[in-house]
Amino acid sequence: MLFVGQYCHNRRSTGQRKTAQSASFVAMSSSPPMRKRVEEYIRGLQAQIVSELENLDKTAPKFRRDSWVRPQGGNGLSCVFACPPESGGTPSSLETILEKAGVNISVVYGVLPPSAIKEMRSNHSSIPYDGETSLPFFAAGISLVIHPRNPFAPTVHANYRYFEITEKADEPKVIAWWFGGGSDLTPSYLDESAVKHFHRTLKEACDQHGSELYSAFKRWCDEYFYISHRHETRGVGGLFFDDLCSETHVRLSNDIARPRTPDEIFSFIRSVGDAFIPSYIPILKANAIRPYTERHRRWQLLRRGRYVEFNLVYDRGTRFGLNTPGARIESILMSLPETARWEYMSDLGVSEESEEWPLVKALKEPREWV
Length: 370
Description:
- By secondary structure, the protein is of the alpha+beta class.
- The protein contains eleven helices and nine strands.
- It has helices spanning 14-29, 34-56, 114-121, 192-207, 213-224, 262-274, 276-287, 294-313, 316-322, 329-332, 357-364, and strands spanning 64-69, 74-82, 98-112, 135-148, 155-166, 174-186, 226-227, 232-233, 238-244.
- Mean pLDDT is 88; it is low at 1-29.
């Protein structure tokens, strides 16, 4: 789900900021508007990912394509996989590779009210605020979650997004812009070779654009996807980043080369976005048909319960979406698994000799995988 998280910070003097912004948007003006380029990219990436998933299991139902229009401005396409329930509402008996999945895009625009601008401006003083004026915004992104049926096949999440705020004028200028996103893996059972493959693929994509991007964003991912009341991470991490623009970034060094212009950051976004299929699909293929027991399934559903806890209690995107007027609730809650489980004082994952313990240890003590 797209969310208004953070924007470019006012960390430079006015003169420096104007110079940086001017240089950035000269680069923007030499090609189609960034909002158009991002929209074209996420539509193509969505189609590619859905096609790849459908080709994995040709006997399974196709993804449902649901095109929608936002009354306040914009549109989107939700591509959702779910097996229809049996008569009486019981879960489907189909043994498909996927149990539930969604690959959604949204391209929305509208007006931010003064109250929203005030809240954003507490951390982003470059956004003008007079207590009365609203400002136009644009946001576009792709968000996906895949919940496989097999307990040995991990859940995966990814999203990549672009946000901009413009002047309120006939020919508005962009006054704040920002990219964010990431991808992370949530297994029920720890397969170290699969986790290392996932992280290595993301690192290779990051390293094309800067030597510290992977390490900084991997650390941020471990911090963000942390379930405080459980004292564990949601999964085994990946990447998480926000507020990527031309300004100084609190997570990145000033003296190490990194993407700074809109074109450079968009190139980075395309690299990590394109890395999704090679990072995850081989893992899914390798584990989708492994034999499993009722115990494995029970543990998978308990882990999915933790996934639900994070998404509903901590995830900023979910909380922002649920509090946004006109938001599409079905698309926001697409990330939740079809089935989850909670047990009082469960005996699974407690013994250090158990098959579940390696994952529990990795969630309690996040590791460096590459």
